Structures are given as structure tokens and as C-alpha cells.
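Structure ticket #2291
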Amino acid sequence: MTRTLIENGVVLTMNPAGDIHEDGCVLVEDSRLAYVGPRGGLPRELDARREDAAGRVVMPGLVNCHTHLCMIFGRTLATNTDLLSWLDLQMPVMRALDAEAMLAAQTLGCVENLKNGNTTLVENLFAPRSDTVSPEDCAFAAMERTGIRGTVARAFEALRFDPAFVETPAQQAERVRALHARWHGSAGGRLRLSFGPLLPWTLDESMLRASRALAGELGLCLHMHVAESAEFNRIIERHYGRPVRNVELLHETGCLGPDVQAVGVSDLSPREVALLAETGTSVILDPQTRLFWGTGFPPLAPFLDAGITCGLATNGPAANCGQDLFESMKYACATAKTAAGDPRVLDARRALRMATVEGARALGLDGQVGSLETGKQADLITIDLRQPHLVPAFDLEAALVFSARGSDVRDAMVDGQWLMRDRCLTRIDEPALLARAETLAERSLERAHVRRGHHRTLKGTP
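Resolution: structure written out below.
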């Protein structure tokens, strides 16, 4: 048995009682948490490797409930467009990715998440379909190599989309079953598969019902963009030929429930919010991306008032140009308060829960991660409090939500293994990865014939 004792830090447990231990300890045995609490609760003599966390917060690793690492080479492209125009401009880059580029993109994205303190992520992957190259295998391989806890949420497009990305329901079922057999539950349960339509108008009602049936057969979650803007509902009505809204359509086809994550949810009626609550469907919120695309202030208050489980996300690095979930927490509070005209609608404690244990619950992982409690997997991070922008920290939770940044994370552990120590990765040669990713991104943009404007590279950087 391998034992690690992290001591002398401020331990933020995120457990149901909200316990914070000022001079706390976390004991890790192999991949699990064996003790979380004050130093006095452990014997003085303990056979364990000791890690001094003085001046740091020890807390659960953050849970990034939705991203698109497959689009990372499109970072900073099309930053002044609406959502669907942005997607159109990103598509040529997506088409240009080969297996080598996809693996590099996914690895870069996993590294960026780890360095921001996100020890769990959901990669909503869409890519051109091929019988010889599996982009999902690339994503899983990157997660396996970097050590992050990850779910690949495979996107499905059957109609009204770029032909290179389209597949039939039979092809989807065949590929999902193969990925399920190869990857779901692998790496000691660290890697998981889910799926769902990329956009609600890229399939029809029968395909939604077939997806629901396939998810039930394999025990997989459904993960999908839902009502991200008012334009979504207008397009749905046009393509389905009747006045139906996004959540209503999902309810009709059985695609709501506790195993469903609805992402974006910016244009919902009160009836739709009620349907989400009644069915136990979770929502995933990425408030800074809504502002980035100019779709308005996300109305978080109705979800909170309805008792809906809410997870937080960064969205993809091409969407908001980063993977900092601390930024998502801060924006969630600011936009919720502005939309409701009420500064009390979302406080720092709830935002932290949405980024940790509540986000884990949205993904069906709250029994494993999201809080520091005995028996859970040892997924945790440390944050350096000894910095000008974090002193004083009279209210620790407020300091983390409103003042901290992803770059304040010093260490990251998943399943009891250190993946980052004092900002240095333990499994990945970061300088080599950055150089390789830059080269492959350049190649992909050249293949896509994308204009780059003012473009700087890492070449010649010391």
C-alpha cells in the first residue's frame, strides 16, 4: 500500500457539512482518500510520505463538465462572430485534422485542463467520420496518457450538417458499441463514454429515440447542446415543421432524465425549466461563452430555484480561448446576479459546489469525486494562497471564486497519483508538446486555407 499524507494546509472538503479544516490533513492510500480532517485525528507516528501544504488550500479537483478539445487549434479564430457563424468558420480546421493532429490537440487540451486544476473533464468530440481513423481513440489515448479523469461525449450528426461529419444511426450505434467495449470503464474506471446529438436539428425524432434506446442499452449518459440561443428554437421549429421548443422535443422523445446533461440552456421557457426539474435532468452552464458570443446573460436563477443539478464548464478553448474553471465560477455569479437583478442569487459557496461536487453529480460521478471524503477517489488540487491577489483571504470561498485563477493551482492528483507538482507535469514533456502542437496547428490551418491575420508562433521562443 502506498500512503501519502498532505498536511499543514487549509482543507476545503466540499462535503455536505461544508467542513473547512484550517490546519488539516488528507491521507491518501493508493487511489483513495483514507482520512480527511484535523491533524489531531491521526496518530502522531504514521508510515506515509509527507507533503507539506503550508500556505495552500487543499481541495477537490475541479470538474469541467463540457469542453471541445478537438477544436483547440481554432483558438483565437473567429472571436467576433455569433455562435453558428463561429462554428462555420471553425469547421475547415476540424476537417484538416488527421490522427496525429487530433492526438496532439487532445493532449494539449488535457494538459491545459490539469494546469487549471480541472482533474475531471467531458470532451464533447465531433470530427469527420472515417473507417480508418478514430478521433475518439485519440481522445481516450490522450486522457489515458495524461492521467486526467475523462469522459468522451461522442457527438452525432445525421442530417443538415457538413457531409464529412454525417453518419447514419446504424453507423453511430456500431461505433458507439465498439468504443464502449474498448474504453468505457478502462484505466481503473477513470475513462468513460457518453454520446448525444451535436445540435438538435442534425437528426429527427426517430433518431433521438434510437439514441435514447442505445444509451439505455449500454448504460451511458446522453450529453447534448440544448437551447444555446434563441436561434436554436427558431431553427428547430423550421426543421421539424411545427412549433416545438428544444426541451419539449427532448421530452417527447424520452431524451430527458437523471442520465442526461443539457449544455448551454440559454433560451428556455418556464415550462421547459419545469420539465428539466421534473425529469431530474442536469444542466451544464458555461456563462463566459454566452457573453463571448453575445447571446445574453444566462438565466441561472430559474435553475437554482427549481432545484436542478447544475454543473459548470469552460466550453472549448476555441470558444472562450481558455479552460479556466475559476473564471467560469466568477462569471456564473456575475451573470446570475445581473440577469436576476439580485446580488444574492448565486453565492461563492454554491458556485464552488457547481465546479466540484455538484458538477460531479451532474455527470453521475458524485459517489467517486467532487469532494474530499473518506472512501472517494483521491482527486485533489492545491492552491497557493501566498500571492498578492489572494491576500487577505478572510472569506476563503469568496477568495477562490472571485480572486483565484487557474494559474494559482500548484499541484494536481488523480487516483492518488500526482500529475502536476509545483506547476510541473509528471507524465508529459510540456515544452515538447507545445512545440509539436504549434507545428501541427500550423499544418492544419494551412490545409484548411484559413487566414490567420496577426499570428505569432513559438518558433524562436527561448
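Closing remark: The longest strand covers residues 3-12.
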